[in-house]
Amino acid sequence: MIVITAPTSRIGQDLLPILLAATAPVRVIVRDATKLPRDIFNHMEIVEGSHDDAAVVDRAFAGATHLFWLCPADDQAPSVEEAYVGFTRPAAEAISRHRVARVVDITALGRGTPYAGEAGYVTASLAMDDLLASTGAHLRSLAMPSFMDNLLWQLPVMREKGMFFMPIPGDLELPACSVGDIAAAAARLLLDDSWTGQQEVPVLGPENISFNQMADIISEVGGRKIVCTNMTFEAYEDMFIRRGFTPAMAAGMTDMARAKARGLDLGIPRTAETASPTSFRTWCETILKPAFDA
């Protein structure tokens, strides 16, 4: 039995069909079951509730052999530690209690770099991994750079002003990965009963790419000039405050971006094992352009 958290997230929406196509027994934890796709609704067990609720995870983890853990970053949390470690603590206790054998979680790159302790959301995510590891379950932490798909929230300003905004230098080449590749990597592990131990599994995409290069590719694919405009870290933090984030979570976003600008995501070399296949151009053609044109 594979338990999936956050099944209506972008990763969850890509992951579920892969698992169901493999006829895997799946149980999902979801706050609102009506948000699940109707065509797969009857092909899985459903536990309604939040996966930070001790009673919910206790019920969901009974008889589970594999768990996919995705912690939603609560922009109303009082601290990044509470958003990740506090949220995950009831699940960690239930993993131990129900002896869930294998856990696959979504985390971030940066462990072992000089910036890991001052990287906001990333620092808290790594602490979450340590909590999951303390359960004794076999663990694979899918370590991510920035998601290509994060650009989707800037679609309105791309349409209106022909630009998107980043505080990270526009010419700094960094790894980036697609949500589809993350889901595929998670599915491979969740459908495999043979792996043991605890380790990170980086998902780095096929190439390092700068935001200026991304803007050029978006322009070519979309047929409209798009530029990346640099903003200060102070303005970046203020943007999240204006969007309703708590001060701690806005600061966490900014600290993460500042650490990435210093090289947080450059600590792991790309190899055949750490690369993933989807290029930024392919992602633009298949995901961004259809969303842009919708």
Write the layout of secondary structure elements.
Blueprint: E1 2-5, H1 10-21, E2 26-30, E3 45-48, H2 54-60, E4 66-69, H3 80-98, E5 102-108, H4 121-133, E6 138-144, E7 146-147, H5 155-161, E8 163-166, E9 174-177, H6 179-190, E10 198-202, E11 208-209, H7 211-222, E12 227-230, H8 233-242, H9 247-262, H10 280-293
Parallel strand pairs: 1-2, 1-4, 2-3, 4-5, 5-6, 6-10, 7-9, 8-12
Antiparallel strand pairs: 9-11
Helix pairs in contact: 1-6, 3-4, 7-10, 8-9
Report on the architecture of this protein.
With 294 residues, this protein is α/β, with parallel strands linked by helices. Helix content is 41%, strand content 18%. The protein is built from 10 helices and 12 strands. It has helices at 10-21, 54-60, 80-98, 121-133, 155-161, 179-190, 211-222, 233-242, 247-262, 280-293, and strands at 2-5, 26-30, 45-48, 66-69, 102-108, 138-144, 146-147, 163-166, 174-177, 198-202, 208-209, 227-230. The strands form 3 sheets. Strands 3-2-1-4-5-6-10 form a 7-stranded parallel beta sheet, with helices on both faces. Strands 7-9-11 form a 3-stranded mixed beta sheet. Helix 4 links the parallel strand 5 and strand 6 (138-144). Helix 3 (80-98) runs parallel beside helix 4 and helix 7 (211-222) crosses helix 10 (280-293). It is globular. The mean pLDDT is 97.
Record field, number of beta strands: 12
Tell me the fraction of residues in β-strands, as a range: 15-25%
Which segments are poorly predicted (pLDDT under 50) over 5 or more consecutive residues?
Answer: none
Anisotropy-based shape: globular
Topology as a string of helices (H) and strands (E): EHEEHEHEHEEHEEHEEHEHHH
| Mean of residue pLDDT values | 97
Amino-to-carboxy terminus distance: 37 Å
Structural class of the secondary structure composition?
alpha/beta
Oligomer: single chain
Kindly state the percentage of residues in helix: 40-55%
Rg of Cα set: 19 Å
SS field, number of helical segments? 10
- Biggest sheet features: 7 strands, parallel
Spatial ordering of strands, largest sheet? 3-2-1-4-5-6-10
